[in-house]
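Take a look at the protein record below and tell me what you see:
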Amino acid sequence: MGVSANGLWKLRARLGYGLARWLVRFPALVRQPRLWAWMEGQYARMAKLGDVRAQSFYGHVLLFRGQGLAARNEGRRLLQLAAEAGDGKAAYQVGLLCLQETPQQAADAGMAAHWWCLAAAAGHPLAAHKLAALYRDGGPGLAADAVAARQMEQRAAELGL
């Protein structure tokens, strides 16, 4: 029984990604430009293959450590893909991004509420807490809703916050 070239490529990607995730724990290694470039390549390859955890991780890396607007936009895109696939941490971060006004986009509390609902459903307690505050106070594109605020406060308590 032979192994396909595609199967070997995916195995190589998973092994490289696992090693890169392990190496990121060592700050001295992360500061090495050539090694960091290799690690980023592993994260990017795994995210491109559709791995939700890799999309979430690399999206956060690009958002907070990426160089320039293109890296930030790619980080946002990867986080949105991971959030759509059910990653609570990514959905929480996309919700935060929706509330930031940028030259490309106005703040949108309605979209933030959408992403935080997904994050809360995935078990993210801080998303439920922030969503409760957003529902209580309202925001750009979202009217205040006391009933929904109480429901989210209860959900945040259920999640341990």
